[in-house]
Amino acid sequence: MEGGLIMVEWIEEVEKRKDDLIKDLQNLLRIRSVLDEEKPTDDAPFGIGIKEALDFMLKTGERNGFSIKNVDQIAGHLEMGQGEDLIGVLCHVDVVPEGDGWSSDPFGAEIRDGKIFARGAIDDKGPTIAALYAMQIIKELGLPLSKRIRMIVGTDEESNWRCVDRYFKKEEMPSAGFAPDAVFPIIHAEKGIADFELVSREHRNEEELETELLSFQSGQRLNMVPDRALAEIKGSNQMMEQISGRYKEFLDQNSFQGSSSLNEEKLTLSLEGISVHGSEPDKGINAGLQMAGFLKGVPFQQKGLTFIGFLNDFMLNDSKGNKLGVAFKDEISGELTMNVGTMSFSKGFSKIGVNLRYPVSCDFKVVQPKIQSAANKYQMDLHVIDHMVPHHVPKDHELIQTLQAVYREQTGEEPELLAIGGGTYARSLDAGVAFGALFPGKPEVAHEKDEYIEIEDLLKATAIYAQALYELAK
Ligand SMILES: [Zn+2]
């Protein structure tokens, strides 16, 4: 220690502990901590695997001299340091089910080509162990701290976030922190996300018209672009043949895949689109909206016209909300986007499901009435199913400045601040960002078969976390 300056070769400190780090990670990965609520007990509300993984973290923390706490068997923490102020690292030890097609045992934690393969390797057990060793290095080097550092371990991130909901009802909120549960460099802004449905009101029966929209189905999830649409139409043979002929032209003109089949007086049309995540709807082809586009102008009965009309007038080829008058854009987090994820019409009843992602400086209280007023014209009501407000830590916040400085020093790369349409675990912290552990340009393997973490990246992340936690808490 010279002039009060502490120089630590962070990566060397990590290398010294490499074998133990890998062994601990392998042991954690061998626990199949998938949510299981078949036979919940007070001791294991989310199943035996999850309990085992949480216990593993707390036991390892205790072994290493951290103070630990189990919060209702669904979350816990490991703490070190001293002082009023608290710095948080938010991790999770639950994993999604392994799925099929693995080249080796998904819970074997086999090492091949410098990678550890297992469900949870990158999401989020690898980063969790990296953060644990980061804390341990600070502790073992005896570096002086003026704040406490606390690792918060959740067990329900992949499902309902009941772990952090409960945890922060009972426990202290860190003044700043990060979640190593996404990508490097730093995600500092996450859009607001609202899921809502537009549902037709009850209205009187009407006389049957010659051409009737019997049913329309497209999409199953609000946050995915639907890749298939199916419509059934009834009418005179002549009319059905005309529509069928026009449909074939429509498919050809747009190079779409689809089919039409006429059976008695019933015509069935199907269309294939391209499914992508609902945060970037323009990258896909929305089969339901394209089908609605084709059906515009068919002289359906009133209820059918209402359904097709709304989709055409307010949704088709407009994922930015221009037609609804809700388009919005800010410098921090970009544009408002809208994905029409489900569309259904049956027995005269329509239901349209939308996943809306809005920028951090936009207010849903302004957006919602505008959409409702458009829906009013079509006798539909808006029901919010789910809503998360935007999350944002400003660029000049000390947390961001510190993480950027550490990242720049250790990687030599410029730590660009990212804004995303999705939600990360970091948003459950008041002042929290997502910080790693996947490095830029590396393939996204979370939730996929043959999930892995590269050992070199694991060690690099550990060194970055160690310095970051030290700088934040010193
Ligand atoms: Zn995760």
Characterization of this structure:
With 474 residues, the protein is of the alpha+beta class. The protein has two domains: 263 residues, 3-Layer(aba) Sandwich (Aminopeptidase), CATH 3.40.630.10; 197 residues, Alpha-Beta Plaits (2-Layer Sandwich), CATH 3.30.70.360. The protein is 32% helix and 27% strand. It is built from eleven helices and 24 strands. The strands form six sheets. The chain has an eight-stranded antiparallel sheet with strand order 13-14-12-11-17-18-10-19, covered by helices on one side. Helix 2 runs antiparallel to helix 4. The longest helix is centred in the N-terminal third of the chain and has 20 residues. The radius of gyration is 26 Å and the shape is elongated. The two termini are 14 Å apart. The model has no long low-confidence stretch (mean pLDDT 94). The structure holds zinc ion. Its cofactor is Zn(2+). Keywords: Dipeptidase, Hydrolase, Metal-binding, Metalloprotease, Protease, Zinc. InterPro entries: ArgE/DapE_CS, Bact_exopeptidase_dim_dom, M20A_pepV-rel, Peptidase_M20, Peptidase_M20A. It holds the Pfam family Peptidase_M20. GO terms for molecular function: acetylornithine deacetylase activity; dipeptidase activity; metallopeptidase activity; zinc ion binding.
